[in-house]
Amino acid sequence: MFKLATIEVKGAPRVALALGGTLYEVDKAAAAYRRQTGKPLLAAIERPLTMLAILGRWPAAFKDLGRLAKFLEDRAGKPLPFAHPERRVKFKAPILYPPRIFAAGANYNAHSKEMTDRLRPGTPYTTAENSNPYCFLKASIGCVIGHGDKILASQVPDEKIDWEGELAVVIGRKGRNIKKEEARSYIAGYTILQDVTARSFVVPRRFDFKVDWLMGKCSDTFCPMGPCIVPDAFIEDPERLRLTVTVNDQVMQGARTDDLTHKIGDILAFISQNMTLLPGDVLSTGTPSGVGFARGIFLKPGDVLRTEIENIGVLVNPVA
User: Fold this and answer.
1) d(Cα 128, Cα 270) in Å, to the nearest integer?
2) Which fold has domain 101-318?
3) DSSP 259
4) pTM of structure
C-alpha cells in the first residue's frame, strides 16, 4: 500500500509517494528506477510532474506507481537524496488546484436530522427516498490549503466559523452519464477535506435569496485538504470508514461513512448527468452530525482542528 502527497522541497511543490514514514519524490525516484532497470516509469506524463498530471493518466500511472513502490520498498533504510522523513515534511494540498470541488450538502442522515431540528423543528428531514443528491462548489484557488496550514478566522468578519469533516473522492477518469454501479472505476482515490463554513454568511441579508454558499463556503483557507490521497485499490469499502473530528482534542464528530444519505455512486451518477467529470475533480461527500452550529459553539483563534478517517490518515489545521 502506498499513498500520494504533494510536499514542499526547497520552496517548490513535489509529488511524493508515501511508504511507511517516508516520502519519496516521485520524479527523482522514477529517474533512479530507470537508471537501475533501464525501463521508464511515468514517461507519458508531462513535466514538471504534478498530481493533476498523474491523475490525468491515472490507470496507467497507478500501475507505474506500484512498480515504483516495490522498487523503493526494496531500498528501505538506505540513504536516498529524494527520501524525506514524514516528521520533517511540509505538506501542501495533494492537488494544488483541483479543477472543481463538489461538496455534498446534508448527506449524512444524522446530520440532516440535527440541522432540521435546529432550523425547522417538527418537519421531515432529508432522506434518500425524499431527495436527490445536493451539491455546491467550493473554490479551488485561495480556499484550498494543506495539512498543517492555518485556517484564518480573520478572513471573514464572522464569529460563527464551523467545522465539517468529510471524506473526499478524487476523480481519475473523465466521465459523463456515469452509471452508479460503475462509479468506482472513475475514482482514483480518497483524501480528507474540511468544509469550513462561515455560518452567518450562509444566510444573506436579502429577501430574494435564502442561501449564499459562495460567501459562506469559499473564503480563503476554508478548504483544508490532505495530507495524502489513498488509491481506491487500497480501500475495501469507502462507505464503511470511521470518521472523527476533534477541536482541541475534544471529539465533536464521530461516525461511519455508512450513514451517507446518498452513496458515492449515486452522487457521481447524478452530477455526471449534466457535467463531464474530469481527472482531479474532488467530491466531498458530506459531513456527519456534530457540527458547531447544532451545538452553538464555533471555531476561534488558537483552536486546533483535527480530522481523522480510518485507513486514509489525519488532517490537522490550527485556527489563527
Assistant:
1) 13
2) Fumarylacetoacetate hydrolase; domain 2 (3.90.850)
3) G
4) 0.96
